Amino acid sequence: MNSILLTLGALTLGGSAAVLLLAFAGRSTRGRYGARWRCWGWLLLCLRLAVPLPLVFRGETRAPIQVDIPNPPAVTQPAVPPHTSDLPGDSPEPPAPSQGPQGAQSQPNPSESDSPSTPLPPERKTDPARIILGVWLLGAAGTLAWGGIAHLRFLSFLRRWSAPVSDGEAVAAFNRLGDQLGLDRRPRLLVCQGLKVPMLAGIFRPAILLPQGNISGEELGFSLLHELTHYRRRDIWLKTLAMWVNALHWFNPLMWHMVRLVERDTELACDEDALRRLSRSDYSAYGQTILSAVARLQNRAD
Q1: SS3 181
Q2: Looking at residue 57, what is its pLDDT?
Q3: What structural domains and CATH numbers belong to the chain?
Q4: Which of 133, 206, 219, 247 could bond 187 through an S-S bridge, CB–CB 3.0 to 4.6 Å?
Q5: Whole-prediction pTM
Q6: 97 compared with 285, residue with greater pLDDT
Q7: What dihedral angle (degrees, nearest 10) is formed by the CA atoms of 134, 140, 143, 146?
Q8: What interhelical angle do 235-248 and 128-161 show, nearest 10?
Q9: Could you tell me which of 252, 202, 210 has the C-alpha nearest to residue 45?
Q10: What is the spatial distance between Cα 222 and Cα 240, in angstroms, rounded to a whole number?
């Protein structure tokens, strides 16, 4: 128990330093090193923080430490000269047995020696490590439950309001971009009521969700390219891993900040990969599409 708490504390301190370092790198070296490298850093950090247990290597056994304690020297008793009965005045007198008032030998009182003493019950002391471990587990379970309930509600919303895309233009653009990205397996393509911008959702059954009747033409192609690049990069797995780490280290404010930084860097890295597949003449139109999507999200939030 104490080893788990010590490992958790060491991990969260080291993770905090790594979060600050990657956040500073994102501000100071954005022009020299792309967001893709920071995403690799987030992945390695999250993998280490995802299991707050001490590392135990199999096959490595440590021999117990043996300490040789020298035996104390033997105590020799001085030799007692033999008693000679021939010397006058040296005849020993036998010790008189202790007698009671009636001449009988005194016996121990059975009421004093034979009665077993009743041990007192040990006092129960509160273990602070148990309390801290319980609070940590309760917080982690609550954070995971909150995220799980939100995910289940979103899945219920999709089952009710989503449907397969029937627009021929969207399906043709989706298949063309999937071939360009070399995707053997592709997500589902759905249209969902109530959405403002396209999005990729789902871990085990991913799907690209399109808003109903809001985008078309060049904007549709850039939006599909962005979401398919997310799918190809497996960014949704990195975001899920970051949320798991945040649930384990819920008591650390920097871990909540890390989730936002991962979200930012995955979006930037996705845009970098998407722009590599476009000509320079399309950079402005692609950027305008992303800015329009951000503006619609902000208007929805307001």
Answers
A1: coil
A2: 41
A3: 2-50+133-301 (3.30.2010.10)
A4: 206
A5: 0.74
A6: 285
A7: -80
A8: 150
A9: 252
A10: 25
